[in-house]
Amino acid sequence: MKGIDIRLFCIWILLAFPIFSSAQSYFQFTSKEGSAFIDDTKVFIKPEKQQFVNYNIDALRNLLRGAPQESRYNDGMPGAKLNLPSPDGRMIEFDIYESKIMDEPDYSSFPNIRTYIAVNSKNKVEHGRIDVTEQGFHAMIFTDGDTYFIEPASLNNQKTLISYYKRDNKEKGDFSCGTQSLGINEEVLEERTPLSCNSSMNLVSYRTAVACTFEYGAFHGGTVALALSAIVTTVNRVSGVYEKDLGVRLILIGNNSLILYTAGNGYTSSNDPYTNGNGSAMLSQNKTNLNAVILTANYDIGHVVSTGGGGVASLSCVCTTNKAQGVTGSGTPIGDVFDIDYVAHEMGHQFGGNHTFNGSTGSCSGGNRNGSTAYEPGSGSTIQAYAGICSPQDIQPHSDAYFTNISLLEMLTHVNTTTSCRTNVSGTNNTTPQITSYTSGKSIPANTPFFMDATATDPNGDVITYCWEENDLGSAGDIDAASTTKPIFRTFNPTTSGRRYFPRTQDVLNNLVTYGEVLPSVARTLSFIVTARDNHATGGGICRQTTSITVVANTGFAVTAPNTAVTWASPSMHDITWNVNGTTSAPISCPNVDIQVSFDNGLSFFTIANNTPNDGTFSWNIPSGINSNQVRIRIVCSNNVFYDVNNVPFTIGNPDQKCFTYTNNSPVSIPANLPGIYSSSIFTSGFGPNEIVTDVNITNINATHTAIGDLQINLTSALGASNILVYDKCSSSDDMNIGFDDEASSSTVPCPPTGGGSIKPQEFLNIHKGLPANGQWTLSLNDWYSGNGGTLNSWSLEICVSQKTVLPLTLLSFTAEKSGENSLLKWTTTNEDEVRMFQIEKLENGSYRPIGNVNTANNSSKQSYSYIDKSPYTGINYYRIKTIDLNGSFVYSEIATLNFSNRIDASVYPNPASTELHVKTNSEKAVIKNIQIFDLTGKEYFIKANKGNGTEVSLDISSLKNGVYVLQLNTGEDNQLYKFIKI
């Protein structure tokens, strides 16, 4: 392939995307109204929540063609950098490596079909598979406790994408499944388990042949390339799940294009070899056809996809004479539901995985249940279950993208007992994790919440996720708290926390009984399995451990007071009471409990008494300075895993907040031909030293501007915390009359945004919470484009404050700085005699979440502390310290920010310019190394620098002809492109 002229390429990228976007920003968030490329008649994926994203597939394809092979990941080397759009509105940096799942000659014959692995550059638990095909860009990303997908917004759309969490795609499917048994003996799998902890492992691959019917090909556009593109996306995703959970890769055979029965291959619905819509018929037809066209010695697993007939597969048929007997048919053979719920499910049967649901209604009836593997209550929620098609016993609408433990055992047993046709993939350099500790041997009271803990290590330093699953079998039917054998707890997506609460904490706090998590009401044994996954991107390893707890039949252990919305003074003395209900006696044997308090309705708890007697009463000496109406009490057995939380939030102190609204009516002009940053400020004063911000809203912005989407509007507090209110929305609409509120009902920007009311901001306003209210609040309007102008007429700011808790500690400083690829947080204190610990919090998904704790020295002298965040985000990171005293009271520090973007912050002005152009970087560290100027054809112009220093240069452009030019600025660390106009 001939080399690409980097100058022309950079200029082309520049014109395709807004100026100032970084070199890896190939995607732009937009709205459905902001895209003209969505064909509503071809929208088949309709999540309840989604982000719309515009992109340029040619630019993206050019970047990815330079991605290194996945062997570089195995060697610990970086990949090509690409920021992917997440469903929560963030651009997240990933390392991209090419990972081929299509063999020759099809790989060379279809150069626009390529597949890759993606690994989060800062947080390697986030990884997945992406592809660029003739149908556009697709991604499947596994995260901590979730999975999200990026898809074309409509079929074959190569301009606009949607990014959404799998949980938010709740449309009902049209699927049914049948499994043909090969008479496999259901022996006890524990006796032949292939799972070995802390041992080296090999990724294994299977030659995969996937045929399609004429109707499937027609759905996708009728050409061989489009049908193959759709199949590659599906196989890439299925393989991504199988690699993570099983260490199994699927690779399409090199002549798979021969078995795509499309119009492009000369076929019609009457002369292709399949009966579309009849799964049972296609089961045998596929075996006959693949053995004739591909030959039986040239593939290990075969499958056929269609537009009807549901799914059917022969059990454990991979590498056998029936290896082609797998069928998946759906009226909409596209998207995460088709790929994960359907194809991965049917191929799961081919690898030996039985159904795992225990429900008995809807599709869970009629003989589909397999009694020896029915470990999931109701419909189940994993791939081999029947999520969403067993009403009224559905756990959730669709399957999560992982296999439950029994599926892992069955499928790995088949993989490791039929080794004749698989291929070992060398060089993955992975060792499976080791579970080092776990909860076992506990006895708990009935009707009482509890938790289970596990910890694991990984020799390769991979990030481990944990999945706790009940491991009980019982009679088919509905979930029953009084059953002594049935499964009553569902499984959830693996997370990086080794602790799982039963039921989920939020349900306990809200006094909810959620289907799929029912506390036992009778004496029984609850068996569990915890699986640790290492999430190695080129073939994951797992380790599992069985355990159990005993449930004792009594009326439960429960907090009795405070159990109503009472108000307690601060300071004061009050009794906390609970029902002991025989828990001090054997076999439960809980002599002591820990009393814990939360001031944020259960988001975080702090211990106010350790190992206090389990006698039903504790007198709490409430300290002064506590003001909260979201107080909860939790009582935990000190030597066990059961606990209870009081029923409702109550109040301590006087938490009432006061709200004030300020308006700036002074117009600010935004000239049409002078891009830049235009600002207006509001000055607040009169707030007391102990009054902090509890809520911030922009009640209204009134502005006139042609093409309002040209503007990026930011709010910056007196301490420098800044968030984007709106950017790149309604580019074809004029003017603005709207407000911004985190609690607004919608995040969709109405176009034009002139109807008043409020919407959620693009970045949350709650980053200002906990800060002082006094000072200068600035609204900035960044106008990136010339040619359009307008006026900011007025804007209004609402600030709510309340009294903060006062601790004796003095926080002298708090800073954030870069330490390699990590964030180094430093702070100094005095007078910390009564302080128990510092909790470091980071802004994540619009809320501050704890990322670590640091214990204190507990004395009055000056102390210095530090904490390293090893997973900073690309872009601006926001940190604060929560200081917690010995009584559980706490205060927040000011916000420290740290920007991990390498983009050069510079100004190019005036723009337009006639004789002289100034270039100035806005940091002493960003020293100008080189400047180049090109016209839009790529021709370079050599311009004399009149004067300058390390960070500022003046250029003589008088010799240039009038027109548009591109300036490339290089600092040695980065290159940045800017457009300017010569007049």
Write the layout of secondary structure elements.
Layout (H helix, E strand, L loop, with lengths): L5 H11 L10 E4 L20 E5 L1 H9 L5 H4 L5 E6 L5 E8 L7 H4 L4 E7 L6 E7 L2 E8 L2 E7 L7 E6 L11 E4 L19 E13 L1 H6 L4 H23 L1 E5 L26 H17 L5 E6 L4 E4 L11 E4 L5 H16 L54 H13 L5 E9 L2 E5 L3 E4 L4 E3 L1 E4 L7 E6 L29 E3 L2 H5 L14 E10 L8 E11 L5 E4 L5 E2 L3 E8 L12 E7 L7 E8 L3 E6 L5 E10 L5 E3 L4 E3 L5 E7 L3 E3 L5 E9 L6 E15 L5 E6 L5 E6 L8 E5 L17 E2 L15 E9 L6 E14 L6 E10 L2 E9 L4 E10 L2 E9 L7 E7 L6 E10 L4 E3 L3 E4 L6 E4 L6 E6 L8 E6 L4 E2 L3 E4 L3 E5 L6 E8 L4 E8 L1
Parallel strand pairs: 10-14, 11-12, 11-13, 13-15, 18-24, 26-33, 40-41
Antiparallel strand pairs: 1-2, 2-9, 3-4, 4-5, 5-6, 6-7, 7-8, 8-9, 11-16, 14-15, 17-20, 19-22, 21-23, 23-24, 25-27, 27-30, 28-29, 28-31, 31-32, 31-33, 34-43, 35-43, 36-42, 37-40, 37-43, 38-39, 38-42, 44-45, 45-48, 46-47, 46-49, 49-50, 49-51, 52-53, 53-57, 54-55, 54-58, 56-57, 58-59
What does this structure look like?
The structure is a single chain. By secondary structure, the protein is mainly β. The protein folds into seven domains: about 140 residues, no CATH class; about 220 residues, 3-Layer(aba) Sandwich (Collagenase (Catalytic Domain)), CATH 3.40.390.10; about 120 residues, Immunoglobulin-like (Sandwich), CATH 2.60.40; about 100 residues, Immunoglobulin-like (Sandwich); about 150 residues, Jelly Rolls, CATH 2.60.120.260; about 90 residues, Immunoglobulins (Immunoglobulin-like, Sandwich), CATH 2.60.40; about 80 residues, Immunoglobulin-like (Sandwich), CATH 2.60.40.1220. It has ten helices and 59 strands. A nine-stranded antiparallel β-sheet has the order 1-2-9-8-7-6-5-4-3, sandwiched between helices. Strands 10, 11, 12, 13, 14, 15 and 16 form a seven-stranded mixed β-sheet that branches. Strand 56 and strand 57 form a beta hairpin. Helix 6 crosses helix 8. The N terminus is likely disordered.
